[in-house]
Amino acid sequence: MMAKKSCLVRIFLRSLFVQSSFNAWRMQNLGVAFSIIPLIKALGMDALDASRLMSRHLQMFNTHPCLTGPVLGSVVKLEENAGDGREIEGLKQALAGPYAAMGDTFFYGAWRPFTALGAVALSLEGVLWAPLIFLIFYNPPAFYVRLKGFIEGYRRGRRGIEFVGGLDLPGLAGKVRLVSAVLLGVLAVMLARSAGQDDAALPTLLTGFLYSGVVLACFWLMTRGISAMKILYGAVALLLLLSV
Is the separation of the CB atoms in 3 and 45 below 8 Å? Predict the structure, then answer.
């Protein structure tokens, strides 16, 4: 028996709050169980089957929040097909680790710092809406992965990982970090000027080398595993000391 579209919509909307009940005991299990509840009524489960389903999804589970959609999509498909409980739980645990690694690398390690740096640059230019602009830029890719991943996970079942793999999030993270390095260099110059370190007296060519050196230094620090936000905080602290 297949779930109706309205049931799938409710499951997806509930999955957006999977992190709300995060706990140190079993991580995201309560959020996953809450998300899957609409499936019980949709499949016409009796009390015994419903208790077994809830018991399965109350086990420990943890992955990146933006990748819970693809996991739940695949899980719902298997539950519809009356899959073996151990197989369903095994699939969840098998996907959790790789999805967490890919999600952390892209969203937390690259995209969030990049959008935050953009917001900082706008705020330095006096744009009052900079915090809102940060949310506007950060959320669409996250929502896309959640929604499209849920749809593809439900459509492909066990092969839902093919969609996530096709996104190449680690590869995208590397490209975003390169752009972030350039943006960090620009921010360093902006911060230097705001701290009173005006370079107007420097020759144009020397200024160009100075800017390029800042960008390369930021890039080198990021290749050493230092996050963009730490570099930004360090630059701010250094410039504050120099402006005293």
Answer: no
Per-residue b or e along 75-85, where b marks 16 or more CB atoms closer than 10 Å to that residue's CB: bbbbbbeeeee
Contact 164, 71 (CB under 8 A): no
Q: Is the pLDDT of residue 204 over 50?
A: no
Q: Is the pLDDT higher at 240 or at 69?
A: 69
For 236, the enclosing helix (H) or strand (E) is helix 228-242
What is the model's pLDDT at position 87? Answer: 86
Residue ranges covered by each domain of the chain: 5-167, 172-242
CB atoms within 10 A of CB 1: 9
Q: Is 27 left (phi over 0), alpha (psi -120 to 50) or beta?
A: left
Question: Is residue 193 over pLDDT 90?
Answer: no
Tokens 């790789």 — which residue? 98
- The Cα–Cα gap between 176 and 98 comes to 20
Tokens representing 119 are 């917001």
pLDDT for res 211: 60
Question: Can you tell me the distance from the alpha carbon of 140 to that of 194, in angstroms, rounded to the nearest whole number?
Answer: 32
Other C-beta atoms lying within 10 Å of the C-beta of residue 99: 23
Report which residue type is found at 124: L
